[in-house]
Design brief:
single chain, mainly alpha, 5 helices
């Protein structure tokens, strides 16, 4: 199955409930999602996403990782 970049709706669903995040982070994640996240480019023939089907990752699953980058406001 060829890779299809996620839609804005799918990105919003993956973010989940952002109510417990700081106000700055909430704004960054919910206002103009297309401006907050770059689209995943279509992979080349030998690209990982073209060769393998990935299920994606939600923000909640990202938060549960043992090592992670913490977003912060400036």
């Amino acid at each position: 199955m060829p890779f299809v970049p996620p839609s804005e709706k799918q990105i919003a669903e993956a973010l989940g409930d952002v109510i417990n995040l700081s106000e700055d982070i909430q704004k960054a994640l919910t206002i103009q999602i297309s401006e907050s996240f770059q689209s995943i480019p279509k992979p080349g023939y030998w690209g990982w996403l073209n060769q393998r089907q990935e299920c994606g990752q939600t923000f909640d699953s990202f938060e549960q990782m043992s090592t992670k980058a913490m977003p912060h406001s400036t």
